[in-house]
Give the backbone structure.
Amino acid sequence: MDVYANMEEAAEFIKSRLKITPLTGIILGSGLGDFADCVDDSVTIPYEEIPHFKKVRVKGHAGNLVAGIVSGKPVAVLQGRYHFYEGHDIRDIVFPVRVLCLLGINNLLITNAAGGINAAFAPGDLMVINDHINLMGENPLSGDNDERMGPRFPDMSTIYDSVMSEKIISTARSMSISIKSGVYAGLRGPSYETPAEIRMLKTIGADSVGMSTVPESIAAKHMGMDVAGISCITNFAAGITDQPLDHKEVTETADSVKEDFISLLTRVVGIF
Ligand code: HPA
């Protein structure tokens, strides 16, 4: 199977539908799908129409590529993502990100919902991801390396771009949106963590925990894109309070900060 040929086929198909050449890519996490409504002159392409894209299987994740203009900039938005816990091959999870790169995108902003581990974090906070810990037990670059995509052993010492991250932080501050920064631990899921696992994650330096983002960031960096990430802290991680974890709490918190989050994304896209 020639993955690169599949990527080219998907990219050519998308280009044939678009009126613009997107420069910034955005991946929308749980509860953030409405950002796609803020895209002007938009063209929406369902994933199932794009060659070699898989079907999205999670409730609350739409599964569309939406391209158009945000804050005067041409963007492509992935509304809905693939998760490892759905049983996808990790290489299929990153396929859309790789296609974005072939469309000409050089800045990728990844968003997600995450549990807060850092004692200074509370549900509703936003956290710029300044580094990650891959605990998924897999890597999207495993297997043969195609040099057209990137090097066999890509450097990950600055995986999240400091210039993009600083722009997010200063923009949030100028809008009086409280913003933290920290390390995101990506686990495979789908069960939430145990309190003992959260204590371990805290010990190894994680500030937030979730079940996405890490594969996409690695693949984007592999292809030479500048990557930034923002977690919406939707809940205290397991064992931090007595309250059991519930997906409903995750979606409700994401929903409650949606407006601020969307205004922040709209603003930062204009200055990337
Ligand atoms: N753990 C893992 N993934 C998550 C969490 C969590 O606490 N909250 C939202 N996604």
User: Anything to note?
Assistant: The CA atoms of residues 40 and 64 lie 15 Å apart. The mean pLDDT is 94.
